[in-house]
Amino acid sequence: MGWFGSLGGAVAAVLLFAVGMAVSIRPLIKKLFRKAVILIETDPFPANIWEMVTLTRHISPQTLIENSMRAQGGVMVKRPLGSPKQMPDFRKLTFLPCQLDRLPTPENQNIETRTVIGPCAKKPLELEIPLLIAGMAFGLGVSEQLKVALAKGSAMAGTATNGGEGPFLPEERKYADKLILQYSRAQWAKDPEILKQADMIEIHVGQGASAGTPSQIPAIHLKGRAMELMGLKPDDTAEIFSRMPGIHRKQDWKKLIDRLRQWTGGVPIGMKMIPGRVEQDLEIAVDAGVDFITLDGAQAATKGTPPILQDDFGLPTVMGLARAVDYLEKKEKKDQISLIVSGGLSTPGDFLKALAMGADAVAIGSAVLFAASHGQGSQKTLPWEPPTQLVLYQGDQKEELNVEKGAKCVACYLQSSVAEMKLATIALGKSRLQDVDRKDLAAPDPVSAAIARVPLI
Description:
globular; 8-stranded parallel β-sheet; two-stranded antiparallel sheet; TIM Barrel; 16 helices
């Protein structure tokens, strides 16, 4: 009783102290508040703190911070995770559920989720689900631990993971069931013996958050496994060129694709690009003989690129997809050339709407990245570091990522998303995810309806 009595006395003392402080400080707070209000209401604007409110309405806090960074260092700002700019997206679209005019699908009907990328290729890429993991570069972006977690998680979910622009990571190939390798604008990972290990080759022409721009990374920032796999010395610079080396004319793309097809024995060969001059770019890609196109819209994320590339270049994903589908249908190539979309899609609703508009698969980046660190980032990094320190190659806490837990969370995220998509497909009276189409969509405003080529509600 003595111990409990002491504890109770201590708690009572703390409460009394808090009450006393509140009572004594309250008049001071009230006085300071009144004084602040009077200053705001009477000071002329040049000396009025309210000018900051006016300023943040004229120039956003994001821009103010980035301009401060420019003023401080005089060097190019590199913003992570893509543009904060609001752009047209799939969320403005809505599905039209079946009830009487067309009945929902019976509850005992199996909903087919499989998709095929590159149906005309000698060795098409067959996936159990139409969601795959977008390219994330080992070394240039993320850690080996994350790449292994993504590879294992994709295998559990019955889909593919993408190696990204970084060097070939043998462990990723070991644990991935289906591996997409990127043929990038850099010099590494071009050996035919490496490319032969791919289930699909994605020629990296450009991407949403960086378009087709060059990049230089001092090898000292890649020290360790990445520098070794890139074949760099400590005083070298890892360079990604603005143009694909060896490509000087439109006809050269076909030569490259034919060569890759020969090396890899017939796996699908395609191109990744940011939607810009959509029809003109697709014409060249189609003439070159691609098996698929990956459209990485303007909302796409990245480890870090200048805000001008993220905010002011490229078309939103939904707009690029609509134009690409129209072009391929007009050329009667839609059933021969697959479409993968990425950039700003993060919910099952986004994914199914993209399929309805004509995509064959969705590549997920940021959402699956955070899924991989679920339950770890908040516990191991916050509040002193952001969760990204757990997954980046240069992250201070990358060694603390539990790979097995990350892999399971990736698989669960993908499986949960597909489960929602299957239920939505039942509500639309369909039995296959790939049967959901534009007739199942509508838009509440003329702009969204025009962009997506769907009826206006």
